[in-house]
Amino acid sequence: MTQSRGSNAADTLDMMRKDWEARLVSRVERDLASGDQDIELILNPKSLGKMRVTMRMSEDGVTLKINSETGMQITCQC
Hints:
- The protein is of the alpha+beta class and 78 residues long.
- 18% of the residues lie in helices and 44% in strands.
- The relative contact order is 0.17.
- The model is unreliable at 1-8 (pLDDT under 50).
């Protein structure tokens, strides 16, 4: 795990593990239940390199940012 801003820790999810999807869902559910508005995860897909995923919830909706080790960045506001 690596430290992120605030009290959250960014979990590095090893996508080669069979249970990575369940771990992802568990982490998001845990953070939502505790009232966190910012969720930060680090994914490590084999073909793309390390990816930092940040989800911020507000009254205006959800902002999702994905930054990859390759320099690609995607931001989506829903």
